[in-house]
Design brief:
By secondary structure, the chain is an alpha/beta fold. The protein has 13 helices and 17 strands. Strands 3-4-5-6-7-8-9-11 form an 8-stranded parallel β-barrel, surrounded by 4 helices. It has a 5-stranded mixed sheet with strand order 13-14-15-16-17, sandwiched between helices. α1 crosses α2. The longest helix is centred in the C-terminal third of the chain and has 25 residues. It is an enzyme of class 1 (oxidoreductase). It comes from Lyticum sinuosum. Converts 2C-methyl-D-erythritol 2,4-cyclodiphosphate (ME-2,4cPP) into 1-hydroxy-2-methyl-2-(E)-butenyl 4-diphosphate. Its EC number is 1.17.7.3.
Length: about 400
């Protein structure tokens, strides 16, 4: 059950016992205000509930409150997270409007400062976060891990006869860095529920091992994701594998898919991947689901695939309206099947489904609603007729369901 302690990130709640939050990050230079605003809106429209932006210099810091105002003027109140490396303590102190406008600060213990300045710089950031009541994310990355922590654990391992592999020591160094910095932030005065931890690596087995340890060794909210998932199918598969295992075990309160974009590919694809993972695991629905068979020698593959795509396009087109008018439409289950083998059965299991005629079958397409056969479609306009039936079903069955 949720407790009374949670991180409030601009009205979005992050904490154990609360719905998993999807977030993303812009790729445009933050000082390019219009470009950044447009990218944030694209990500928000795709379903990102929090957007992180780079704040790496004075120009970017000055741009933050302007970006916030422009978003609000266009009807977007999406929380913004400032991503700081090396000079976050300076920027937050010098540009107070930036510190106030951001809804969360993201810092990396590996580069918040070095030597004698490290604790001093971290302390400045924590004090500013406490003053403005802003949560922070302590984000440890194995590509920029605090060398002093790693060297200390490597030395200790050597003194005990190398009982652990270098990889095991590296994982422990990441966990130690995250937890020790979170503890230090608490000592400075930031409440534990306002601290979110991430400990990102690129290999799936390492990520799973690290987050399981963090979950059992602390009560902090956890942001989960690979630090660089990769390009194309590799990135999608790696992200899905890692997140699915952890989320199904109840580990993770907010997630991101750090996919490498192909030229011209929208950044919003990473948001959709996160939403699809959550929906596939039965953790949270974001849009109606469509069951469609893969096709085989029994099916007229071109026909049922076109219908499945038509229904998908219809949902995409109508979701902005449906989401406002029919909030529970995200739970709608649709089936578009290609022949008599599994078609009627899958259609009965769905809220609304259609079983198209396969090769050699009589050219009729039965439509099932709530498990009962209600229509039989035939002719050249099956797609149009089914979409009309689907639209009417949504209006008739979801208009009175608010929560």
């Amino acid at each position: 059950m949720p407790t009374n302690k949670y991180a409030d990130v601009g009205g979005v709640i992050i904490g154990r016992g609360y719905p998993i939050v999807v977030q993303s990050m812009t790729s445009s230079p933050t000082q390019n205000i219009e470009q950044t605003v447009n990218e944030i809106i694209e990500l928000a429209d795709a379903g990102s509930e929090i957007v992180r932006i780079t704040v790496n210099n004075i120009k970017a810091a000055i741009a933050v409150p302007i970006i916030k105002d422009k978003l609000i003027s266009r009807g977007y109140k999406i929380p913004l997270v400032g991503c700081f490396h090396y000079n976050g303590h300076q920027l937050l102190k010098q540009i107070s409007d930036c510190a106030k406008s951001l809804d969360k600060y993201r810092i990396n213990p590996g580069n918040v400062g070095f030597g004698n300045n490290r604790d001093k710089n971290l302390e400045q950031i924590i004090e500013i976060a406490s003053y403005y009541k802003k949560p922070i994310r302590i984000g440890v990355n194995w590509g920029s891990l605090d060398k002093t922590v790693l060297d200390s654990l490597m030395k200790k391992n050597a003194e005990t006869g190398y009982k652990k592999s270098d990889q095991e020591v590296l994982r422990e160094a990441i966990i130690t860095s995250a937890l020790s910095n979170a503890s230090y932030a608490e000592k400075i005065g930031l409440p534990s529920h306002m601290i979110i931890i991430s400990a990102k690596v690129s290999r799936v087995p390492d990520l799973i091992s690290i987050y399981r340890e963090l979950y059992f060794r602390s009560n902090y909210a956890l942001h989960v994701g690979l630090t660089e998932a990769g390009l194309g199918n590799k990135g999608i598969v790696s992200t899905t594998a890692a997140l699915s295992i952890l989320l199904k075990d109840g580990i993770g309160n907010t997630i991101r898919a750090s996919l490498t974009q192909s030229p011209g590919e929208p950044r919003s694809n990473e948001v959709q991947l996160c939403l699809d993972i959550l929906q596939s695991l039965g953790l949270r629905n974001s849009r109606p689901s469509i069951t469609a068979c893969p096709g085989c020698g029994r099916t007229n593959s071109d026909y049922f695939r076109k219908l499945a795509q038509t229904v998908e396009d219809m949902i995409t087109e109508k979701m902005s309206i449906w989401r406002q008018k029919y909030p529970k439409v995200v739970d709608l289950r649709i089936a578009v099947m290609g022949c008599i083998v599994n078609g009627p059965g899958e259609s009965k299991h769905a809220d609304i489904g259609i079983s198209l005629p396969g090769d050699g079958e009589y050219p009729l397409a039965p439509v099932f609603i709530n498990g009962k056969k209600c229509y039989t479609l035939r002719g050249d306009n099956i797609a149009g007729e089914f979409c009309k039936i689907l639209d009417n079903y949504v209006e008739n069955n979801f208009s009175n369901i608010i929560n």
